């Protein structure tokens, strides 16, 4: 290659790192194929349920729900012994999130969070910082009041099934530069800013952390993340925020309530790596006491499908910086305020499919 061409290519590549990062961050080059796969799974689940309802005389105790995620694991009567099957039940852009699949079962027996540098064995903090894949379960109902943000390492599943697990306090959950994390069936609320202290993030690393925002779940530069069947409310900043190049995320079957800025997807309008962000928002209930950002999307491709929006005080879905928002099969129940019943779109690319239902209160 001639020297001048080599110099030109070098200058071009080094001059546009955000653009290159955004391109490399693109998980699915054809996101519509992921959307179609979600549609197929939902339709198959609905058909199975309809067949049972029309052919079985007493179908009241059948596991089939019409929800492909729940049908995948709830139909197994021994699900408690086959917990890791859950990792095969994801849909959408977070389908590849394996969590702690094929790892050991770690049973949390201690609800305390006394030491963020040397966490107590048996505590949730001790479990999530380990290097190896772990499937984390809970020995009993518990309320875990965090002193500071809980920094989760890669290849972890936090599985609250079979127990009533509440996480609250400082932080709360931080996924920073990690991959393959599943958070399932936990309550997360009253999360407040904390920090300016040392926190362990792995068996070999302790770092000084500044003040956190007070998100329920903060997803920062991470991929292959699945949040399912969680309840989130009353946090200082966002209930779930995914920023700084995060992608391959599914947020499903969760309940959001009593909060202002519910969900932010994308750091800011000028942050090009978020152009590769791909997120599925499916089967969630956006309930009472919510104000805005359900979600708020900057750049990227977001599939918002089969959600129930029952209250908003400003707006439900918003976007800027040319995101693609594919809104499909959702139900919107407008508040009494006539100003909030107006349908307005400020995003430059917003797709509506048949099946959306708008209801006036």
UniProtKB/TrEMBL annotation:
Pathway: Glycan metabolism; pectin degradation; 2-dehydro-3-deoxy-D-gluconate from pectin: step 2/5
Domain Pectate lyase residue range list: 141-338
Gene Ontology molecular function, alphabetical: metal ion binding; pectate lyase activity
Cofactor-binding details, from the entry: Binds 1 Ca(2+) ion. Required for its activity.
Pfam families from the UniProt entry: Pectate_lyase_4 (PF00544)
Reactions catalysed: Eliminative cleavage of (1->4)-alpha-D-galacturonan to give oligosaccharides with 4-deoxy-alpha-D-galact-4-enuronosyl groups at their non-reducing ends
GO biological processes: pectin catabolic process; plant-type cell wall organization
Source superkingdom: Eukaryota
Family matches, as PANTHER family: PECTATE LYASE (PTHR31683:SF101), PECTATE LYASE 18-RELATED (PTHR31683)
Name of this protein: Pectate lyase
